[in-house]
Amino acid sequence: MLGRAAPDAPGPARDRLTHLAGLLNACGIDAPVTDAIHAEIWTKLAANVASNPLSVITGATLEAMATDPATYAIIRASLDEAIATGAACGISTLKPAEAICAMMAAAGPHETSMLQDFRAGRTLETVAIGDALVALARALGVPTPIIDTLLGLVAFQRRSLAGKEQTS
Q1: How far, in Å, CA of 75 to CA of 79, rounded?
Q2: What is the pLDDT of residues 32-45, one digit of tens each?
Q3: Containing H/E element for 151?
Q4: Nearest residue to 118 (alpha-carbon basis) of 70, 54, 75, 69
Q5: Residue 167, φ and ψ in degrees, nearest 5
Q6: What sign results for the dihedral spanned by CA atoms 90, 94, 98, 101?
Q7: How many angstroms separate the CA atoms of 40 and 8, rounded?
Q8: How far apart (Å, rounded) are the C-alpha atoms in residues 23 and 31?
Q9: Nearest 5 degrees, angle CA 46-CA 96-CA 131?
Q10: Which residues contact 115 (CB under 8 A, 6 or more apart)?
Q11: Own/partner pairs for 65-68, CB < 8 Å, 24+ apart?
Q12: Of the spans 6-10, 14-18, 118-122, which averages the highest pLDDT?
């Protein structure tokens, strides 16, 4: 850590972190302070890998996907795969899939950033969000058939659209 105290250790760094979180919370920005930052980061990754590719395929918002029985089942299965990968990495305090799905439903009619990028013709974050998790899962022996399928369908959709643009 190059001589610096970790922000989760007691002392001035933790005090500054707590103060900053208080300021952000006072402005209406949810900024919890946690000692389980790895679990929080993994939860964010799991939620993104479960929702972003599916949103590109369906064109649906987080709320719509998390409340529809068919897409909920896909989200739930991909969350289970991502959570299993996190657990294989030694992250034991992961949020359960149901809680992550509830957070998605509570997001309301929010379009994922990947869906927004797709509609705008921008490069998608599938490598950073999906491929990296899948590579790690493979290295740890964790199967990810649902995530693999979602990423494959997004790649197919991109190739399909590129082919249509070339023939137009």
Answers
A1: 6
A2: 887 778 888 899 99
A3: helix 145-167
A4: 54
A5: -90, -10
A6: negative
A7: 14
A8: 9
A9: 15
A10: 52, 55, 56, 59
A11: 65/104, 66/101, 66/102, 66/104, 66/105, 66/107, 67/105
A12: 118-122
User: Which of 37, 49, 57 shows the shortest CA–CA distance to 76?
Assistant: 49
- CA-closest candidate to residue 64, choices 100, 98, 110: 110
User: Does the predicted model carry a pTM greater than 0.70?
Assistant: yes
Tokens of 58: 């369906």
Residues 6+ apart with CB under 8 A from 31: 20, 21, 24, 25
Q: Contact, 108 vs 97, CB < 8 A?
A: no
CA-based nearest residue to 130, from 27, 49, 58, 57: 49
Count of residues making up the chain: 168
Query: Do the Cβ atoms of 154 and 53 come closer than 8 Å?
Result: yes
Answer whether 65's CB lies under 8 Å from 59's CB: no
Cβ count within 10 A of residue 120:
7
Element (H, E) at 63: helix 62-67
Question: Among candidates 38, 35, 29, 42, which has minimal Cα distance to 96?
Answer: 42
Encoded amino acid at 105, one letter: A
Q: Residue 94: pLDDT band by 50, 70, 90 thresholds? A: confident
